[in-house]
Amino acid sequence: MQTELNTTSIFVTVVEAGSFSNAAEQLHLTRSAVSKSIARLEERLGVTLFKRTTRTLSLTTEGALFYEHSHRALAEIHTAESLLDQGKINATGLLRISAPVLFGQLYVAPLMVELAQQHPDLQIELSLNDRTIDLVEDGFDLAIRIGTLPDSHHLVARKLGDHRMLLCATPQYLERSSALHQLDDLQQHTTIAYPYSGQQPKWHLQDEHKQSYTIKPQAKLMLNDMQAIKNTVLSHHGIAWLPDWLVHHELQQGTLIQVLANFSSVDFPIHVLWPTLPFMPLKTRLAIDQLVEKLPQQLYA
């Protein structure tokens, strides 16, 4: 690989110098060494790169195409070397990220804003949507997913943390409502649910002994937005099953209470995913590093 890179560099120098002799002088090589290097390159590529006469040297069509891409590639290498010499790592280009709406607003967006401020030449597009997107078909570099991941040979995943769903209500609601000691008691309460495809999903709970329970209380209200559900609960209108990362401040402050506290959901993993690639672009690696380093700290604050 090093020999091929050196040969390509000699080829670019010949084109830009205008002759083998001028290139040899710039490279501190003999004209014969330069000529042999170009001959080896042409043999490896299986094409003729130059039209040679006794007085002129010009590129063939294949040579012009190879020069265009080689010149660009060598320029990128020189830029990378210069940045490393300066100790400066600056991501560039457009980075497209998909994340669930509310989780993205609260946790992903602030971290990506911070990353964009650190890299002025980086443009970040954060798409907030609760539907499952296809990273490759939809052209995303990264996606945040909550829940169990399906098997895929086309994606790479890194775990960022876990969260649980908790049954929550306000003290004011509980004061004026009937007793709540067992799961069956939920049937006597106003429950607020998040619908999925027009249906109320079941609540999957476990007790402190890891015994699993599946319940489907008859919801009095169904709202397709977690923040709206939380706001409705905070207005003393009922009990809801909410993610711990959404309510931990209110639980600490006492404006919300975890009801049936010996029951919670199983752990739901939170992952960042990206397409399988021969190499990882710098912008993608920096975004993953930002999420891995800082998101768990915020999640478990």
From TrEMBL:
**Which species?**
Acinetobacter colistiniresistens
Highest taxon, organism lineage: Bacteria
CDD domains in the record: PBP2_CrgA_like_6
Task: Tell me the InterPro entries matching this sequence.
Answer: LysR-type_TF_proteobact-type, LysR_HTH_N, LysR_subst-bd, WH-like_DNA-bd_sf, WH_DNA-bd_sf
Gene Ontology molecular functions? DNA binding; DNA-binding transcription factor activity
Q: What is this protein called?
A: HTH lysR-type domain-containing protein
Give the record's family classification: Belongs to the LysR transcriptional regulatory family.
Keyword field: DNA-binding, Transcription, Transcription regulation
In this chain the HTH lysR-type domain maps to 10-60
